[in-house]
Amino acid sequence: MRWLITGGGMLAADVLRAAVASGEPALPLGRSELDVTDRRAVRDMVTACRPAVVVNCAGWTAVDDAETHEAEALEVNGHAVAALADACSAAGARLVHISTDYVFDGTSREPYPEDAPTCPLNAYGRTKLAGERAALERGHHVVRTAWLYGAAGPNFVRTMTRLARAGAAPDVVDDQRGQPTWAADLAAFVLRLARSGLPPGVYHGTSSGETTWWGLAREVYALCGADPGLVRPVPSTAYPRPAARPGNSVLAHTRCAPIRHWRDALRAAWPTLTGELPRTPAQVGEAGPQCSVA
User: Fold this and answer.
1) 155-178+210-274: which CATH number, 3.90.25.10, 2.40.50.360, 3.30.479.20, 3.40.50.300?
2) From the candidates 124, 149, 203, 221, which is the catalytic residue?
3) Using one digit for the tens of pLDDT, what is the confidence trace for 166-176?
4) Which residues in the chain show pLDDT less than 50?
5) Where is the RmlD-like substrate binding domain (predicted)?
6) pTM of the model
7) From CA 40, how far away is CA 2, in angstroms rounded?
């Protein structure tokens, strides 16, 4: 199977790594290799490469900046997805488009199933929803994920690791719930989905279990051998942002099995993230519901 991977960020790097490790040819296309907003360039690239699967990891990810640059974000997160989907359909390739929990407003008390009504709170969520619709209308796959972290690029886990090593006592939001998800786990999930023969549609690619940002920060501190008590819980109102965040980002998994529990994944990821073994057993965060993984 030949893979084409758009985007040059954290997830794209892990999808490339997973594809290469499986012995299959994969072509990474960062922004300098392919402008996904250039419809002709997208069509020509897909036609020339003839991939079996295109994994679209490209996107406008600056959530707050999208509030004042929604048209530009829509070009990348919406219109470019339509161009990729059209090119894939014409070339007989499958598109797996990466989306987000931000298509929901976060007011539900329960995890959001794949077919839950969408209602974005912010411009970023609206543009990502436009991309979802473009992919689905053309018969392709959408994978929603959330709270992603990995070895490449800035993310919450790396920030908390730096603060823990410095002995800092950060204030961390404790009224937003979600599923921390290791990018390498999501990459493996995406490859399995693409190979599975499952029909086009929406699939949720997040770890099982749930916690808050405060709970995740405490877990990181413990794994660093620092005192989790240094992490102070605060409400979201303590950090006003241009873009509203959903209070509940927990995604249900009704169409396929979830990725392993977020705490197990974080411990497995730790040597890759830090170059060290975890210092203590991960037992300080909120466990959340356990889910079996097929």
Assistant:
1) 3.90.25.10
2) 124
3) 999 999 999 99
4) 282-294
5) 1-269
6) 0.93
7) 21
